């Protein structure tokens, strides 16, 4: 595929601007796109594992909070992604 004349192969991240037209030409294979839109937040970003905060200090505090409380405690008897055949949680047992 090409996006504005640039060849794109495989998984890619491409920035386009919402106020300009974009020419997308797909090849013979099907393609899937995930398009996200947003304005820059104008703040520093620090990411570590699942946490995204504004500073290293906030990241460290997020880990402390998680270790102490599991973010509000975990009401299930184990940390497994499923908990029996009943649909009591977000994951299904297969």
Can you describe this structure in just a few lines?
The protein has 1 helix and 5 strands, in the order βββββα.
Describe this structure in words.
The protein has 94 residues and is an alpha+beta fold. 15% of the residues lie in helices and 13% in strands. The protein contains one helix and five strands, in the order βββββα. It has one helix at 56-69; strands at residues 2-3, 6-7, 24-25, 46-48, 51-53. A three-stranded antiparallel β-sheet has the order 2-1-3, with no helix packed on it. The protein has a two-stranded antiparallel sheet with strand order 4-5. β4 and β5 (51-53) form a beta hairpin. The longest helix has 14 residues, at 56-69.
Characteristics of this structure?
single chain; 94 residues; alpha+beta; three-stranded antiparallel beta sheet; two-stranded antiparallel ribbon; 13% strand; flat
SSE inventory with pairings:
Layout: E1 2-3, E2 6-7, E3 24-25, E4 46-48, E5 51-53, H1 56-69
Antiparallel strand pairs: 1-2, 1-3, 4-5
What is the number of helical segments per DSSP (H or I, 4+ residues)? Answer: 1
**Residue runs with pLDDT of under 50 for 5 or more positions:** none
Strand content: 5-15%
Structural class: alpha+beta
Query: What does the average pLDDT come to?
Result: 81
Query: How many strands in all?
Result: 5
- Radius of gyration from the alpha-carbon trace, in angstroms: 21 Å
Strand order of the largest sheet: 2-1-3
Characterize the biggest β-sheet. 3 strands, antiparallel
Kindly state the percentage of residues in helix.
10-25%
* Gap between N and C termini: 37 Å
Coarse morphology: flat
